[in-house]
Specification:
The two termini are about 25 Å apart. This protein is of the alpha/beta class.
């Protein structure tokens, strides 16, 4: 099971693209409303979530995904249950994906120390202890980060490679006519 956290002000492309791509690979993806059952993205697109943050469980959790956007990232960072689930995954080496401004949440929690990471330009200082790269997406251990909406497919590719394998990611890329 994969949780994708949605908080008011999230970047729609950074959330919907990984949801779609992971589901195309047969993964169970659950949208989690951090700020309510219906969450509105940064471009005023409302999304009805599968569950709310209060309904989350950890049994069977394979990955969590944090889309960026503003104020979505700030709303993720302000939620104590989101922090608990991030810490749960970190402590158990469960995959954590964060894109755009959302890697800053991981940096502020001290989870990027000694890791390669990327983020939306201007958030680099929040990636405390990370080796900040200038690539669309990067995986270091159990953490996958990406730069922004323009890297949503690359981010999804890295998530699938980490969760399933490179062959599944390559197959999906071919199916959607995307070249890495």
């Amino acid at each position: 099971m994969i949780y994708v956290f949605l908080a008011n002000g999230f970047e729609e492309t950074e959330a919907i693209t990984p949801i779609d791509m992971l589901r195309r690979c047969g993964k169970k993806v659950i949208t989690v409303g951090v700020t309510g059952k219906v969450v509105t993205g940064s471009h005023n697109i409302p999304v009805a979530c599968d569950i709310t943050i209060d309904e989350t469980v950890t049994d069977g959790l394979e990955m969590i995904v944090l889309p960026g956007g503003m104020p979505g990232t700030k709303n993720l960072a302000a939620n104590s249950r989101v922090a608990e689930l991030i810490r749960f995954c970190s402590d158990r080496n469960i995959l954590i994906g964060a894109i755009c401004a959302a890697p800053s949440v991981l940096g502020e929690m001290g989870l990027l120390d000694g890791k390669k990471a990327v983020c939306y330009p201007g958030f680099e200082d929040a990636l405390r202890g990370a080796e900040v790269l200038s690539v669309p997406a990067v995986r270091d251990g159990n953490i996958i980060t990406a730069r922004g909406a323009g890297a949503a497919l690359e981010f999804s590719y890295e998530l699938i490679s980490a969760l399933i394998d490179n062959a599944a990611a390559e197959k999906l890329a071919g199916n959607i006519v995307w070249t890495k």
